[in-house]
Amino acid sequence: MSKAIMVIGTLDTKGDEVRYLKEQIEARGHETIVVDVGVLNETPFQADVARQEVAKAGGLSLPEILASSDRRVAVQTMMDGAIKIANELHQTGKLSGVVAVGGGTGTHICTGVMRTLPLGVPKLMVSTVASRDMSQEIGTKDITMMHSVIDMLGLNAVSKKILANAAGAIVGMVETDVGLTPTRPLVGLTVFGFCTEGAMHVKSLLEARGYEMVAFHANGTGGMAMEDLVDQGVLSGVLDFATHEFADQLYGGYCGGIGPGRLEAAGRRGIPQVVVPGGLDCIVLEFDSPETIPPQFRDRKIFWYDFRSGVRTSKEEMKTLAQTIAGKLNKARGPVKVVIPLRGWSEADGEGAPLHEPETNQVFIAELKRLLRPQIEVIEVDAHINEPEFAEAAVATLDEIMHR
Amino acid sequence: MSKAIMVIGTLDTKGDEVRYLKEQIEARGHETIVVDVGVLNETPFQADVARQEVAKAGGLSLPEILASSDRRVAVQTMMDGAIKIANELHQTGKLSGVVAVGGGTGTHICTGVMRTLPLGVPKLMVSTVASRDMSQEIGTKDITMMHSVIDMLGLNAVSKKILANAAGAIVGMVETDVGLTPTRPLVGLTVFGFCTEGAMHVKSLLEARGYEMVAFHANGTGGMAMEDLVDQGVLSGVLDFATHEFADQLYGGYCGGIGPGRLEAAGRRGIPQVVVPGGLDCIVLEFDSPETIPPQFRDRKIFWYDFRSGVRTSKEEMKTLAQTIAGKLNKARGPVKVVIPLRGWSEADGEGAPLHEPETNQVFIAELKRLLRPQIEVIEVDAHINEPEFAEAAVATLDEIMHR
Hints:
Two copies of one chain form a homodimer.
Chain A: E1 4-9, H1 11-27, E2 31-36, H2 51-57, H3 62-67, H4 71-91, E3 97-102, H5 104-114, E4 123-127, H6 135-138, E5 144-147, H7 157-174, E6 186-191, H8 196-208, E7 212-217, H9 221-231, E8 237-240, H10 245-250, H11 265-269, E9 273-275, E10 282-285, E11 302-304, E12 309-312, H12 315-330, E13 336-341, H13 358-371, E14 377-381, H14 388-402
Parallel strand pairs in A: 1-2, 1-3, 3-4, 4-5, 6-7, 6-8, 8-9, 9-13, 13-14
Antiparallel strand pairs in A: 10-12, 11-12
Helix pairs in contact in A: 1-7, 2-4, 4-5, 8-14, 12-13
């Protein structure tokens, strides 16, 4: 069955490439919707959605854009317009995938459009800058980046091969008959290296109870990706096992980089969530020797790992973290429980482990209990986070609130 | 027609995902060759190329790998083994594309394999870390990176959708009937922002003479990508219009990052090359105000651009650059000519432009002439690099040596 694929590009600078992509896709039996996000020079052919329409959808007329001396106005308006057009088409079932080709600016605009489409919708960016840091462009989304290797300045045997591969990839993706259709309730689980053993116990126990576990590496991007999938309605429940990102966020640690919306989507959508202080015992920073310990942490306990090491969180930080987490959970519209292991929160924090400080963890527990509204139960489990007993308690708690 | 697709992964940790990819690809009518690059735990199914074979191809037995306490031994050996296996299969026509799934280590191993396969061979990496900086993993290659969004810890509705899209993408790519088959001789052209106008003249003139131009953005990666495509035999000639990367390389500038092989592939393969000092008038660094000029450049002329600015190269640096370039060109086995514009080497360097210093450029010219072997002609053109007359001279020179 023929599908409709959106092809985005700045037709003034990438017109030949966009046309070639269009032709290749059509030759393989699918329809294309060409969207022009360029504003300057002439275009070699007529787009299905012309730049004037895109600009208008973005809130300005093309002359208004051209009158602005600020280049960012054009970039933002064309991105906003294309976002609106792509989402309208997708919501009315008229869009099966998106492919785009661009340099630095084109990649910025087109990935901005792709980031607004739900997970699973094929999104392919052919980019001259794919071999640079694309963390801002990809973010928490299932964007596929194809490095063009060469500069896209017209068609030649090399650019044709790259673009034909891209056309093949987007065609092959939209032809997939596998949908995003859970057969069992999906539970989001955050996972952090030092609590992996516990997370693996959780996985088995969740599956035994009829759930499917979707894991997110709690490294900044992962936690935010889980928030995204909650917002998209993909997940039915959350076991936020590794809230470690909040500790790293305090000092720009390795797993920091979360946005303000972390730990808020489940509450906002009212889906059940169980929260665990996995990894809040340590701040993970990039240093690997006594000489390279950041000065402000010289008096802390250290868990040496690889090129990264864990610094013990202080009592003061425990309070701050409890305040942050309580503030977010108190806003939740759905059921929430907090489950806390009393014998350690990661492999760095346990009997005999370098960051073991039960009295410091107690500061977090006390502060959290003090601040949480009374409807949010805090369950303390006399086990280590990586022990099966703890996983069982966490999973049983989630299972209970999911069946309410 | 059924094609063979290699599916790589560490079967101990990503076995379910690899099997699902395999099944999805086979369901769409293609064959798979599963290669196991894991070394530790049990695998859920038998790979076509087992870990023992991969290790052996990499130069060690599996027990030898496991006996090493250095994790890097396992990683490097399995990568080396998979590289050997993939290239043997490709060279005997038994491999149409490669797809892999992995976390941090898996991405490192599998992109290492992909980087050794020629441009055009479909290469798709499904990676949990695709939203981090992948510049080392992608490098100068046409690797396509698909962000898995979630952690790959077993199958669920989300990972199945991501992997089905990946299977679709690699299948769609290998089904492409467009090959890398030039109909006209391909000429590699390096392009740098401040010489773009000149490069556009070159493009028209090359095309008028029956060549196809393949452009490379001279930003470190681009120059090295051109060297790669020369080595792969894709390019028939080189017009190294923007050798600017060498100036930036002196001080870690914006377009630095070239490897030691820059400006050497054409000479090594003996294909015709014309070299132009485009952009050697300036070192481009990231600063945008008098306060942020790096101290050692405070007494230099500055070309203010955007968040980057150009610092005038000194007479001393001109000598160094001439020595570097002459050393490389003197080793060339094929025809080489140097064509130099006397009225400026970029838009920063011309009559009235901030970095205009003809006497400094003369130091480069004199030193280059002194060092080049006599067979390498230096042609001086009384024009600016961005003027049509200069482009005509450069293209005519290349055309002449390509017809010898």
